Structure formats: C-alpha cells, structure tokens
Amino acid sequence: MQEMSSSAWERRGSSVVFDKTTLGRLIQDQAMVSLRDAMTWMNSWPATPPNGASTVIVAGLEACLDLDTPRDAELWLQNRVKPFIEEFQRHWDQCGLVFGFGVSGSAFSVTSADEEVVFTRSDNKEVHLSYALWNGSSTLNVTRLVRPGDRPGEQVTIGYYVRRIS
C-alpha cells in the first residue's frame, strides 16, 4: 500500500482519519458537520463548502457502522455514503472530505491479500470499509496516511485516503 505524508488529502479526495492529533488540528482549522447534516446535501447541494473550508470533516460515520449488522452497514455505505462521496467530488473537486473516527488506529486493519481496509466495530465484528465506501475497485488506490511520530524515523498511521472514486 502506498503511503502519503503530505497534506494533499486535505484538499482533494476522501479519507477516514482516526488520529486524534490530526483530527484536533483539522477541527480547529476547517469545517465540521454531522453525517446527518452532510447527507441532507444530497437533496440540495450547497454552492460552497461550509465556511469556505478546503476540508470538510464529517462526524458520525463510526456510530452508524455500529448500529446494524456488518453486512447491512456495508450495504448502507455502498448505497448511501458512496453516492455522497461521488457527489462531493462533482461539486467540490478542490476540497477534501474527511470522515473522522474517534477510535484508535487498532480498530483498522489492512488485509494482506488485497490491501482492503477493514474496520473492527465495538462488538468486534468487521466492516469491509474500503470495499463498501470507495468502490471495491479502489482498494488498489487506497493510500495509508502517515505523519511523523515522536521518535526519529517513526511513522504514525493517521488514516486511509482515496483520491477519487468512479
């Protein structure tokens, strides 16, 4: 899997970010909306991102994934959230979409066979996140987001990113 340490993901594409340090910085500097509010945009898309921000942070996806069976959660991602990402790309191509998660990075894993990102819910059941959220073919295009750690040469995974889905 490719890695990215630049901030380009903040200005284009969609990502899942779980690193508290990174999310804290983004929340201070950018627009944050609830998943519920963001999904209403599908009925009437705003002309510009909230506050004219270059990054829109969406809170609440993690909680929605815990509410149903893993299969139903994956179907919901495919049928509701993926189309939202596609519309976001069409309307605000020069803006990054970030789904913020409040869990630690240990709730995410990458399969060795096809480098698919899997989210382990609070009940220890798995949701195939990258397949459902970013269209299965995009698993080849998923990039691991990293930042420098506290020790020299250390890289901390902060999330996962896809530049564009189709």
What does this structure look like?
The protein is built from five helices and ten strands. 30% of the residues are buried. The strands form two sheets. A seven-stranded mixed beta sheet has the order 1-9-10-2-5-4-3. A three-stranded antiparallel beta sheet has the order 6-7-8. The protein is α/β, with parallel strands linked by helices and 166 residues long. It has one domain (2-162). Helices cover 30% and strands 27% of the residues. Strand 6 (108-110) and strand 7 (117-120) form a beta hairpin. The longest helix is centred in the middle third of the chain and has 22 residues, at 70-91.
The SSE order reads EEHEHEHHEEEEHEE
Can you summarize the main beta sheet?
Answer: 7 strands, mixed
Model regions low in confidence, pLDDT < 50 over at least 5 residues: none
Mean pLDDT: 91
Question: How many E-type strands?
Answer: 10
Termini distance?
20 Å
Structural class: alpha/beta
Q: How many discrete domains?
A: 1
Gross morphology:
globular
> What is the CA-atom radius of gyration, in angstroms?
15 Å
DSSP summary: helix tally = 5
Q: What percent of residues adopt helix (DSSP H or I)?
A: 25-40%
Strand content: 25-35%
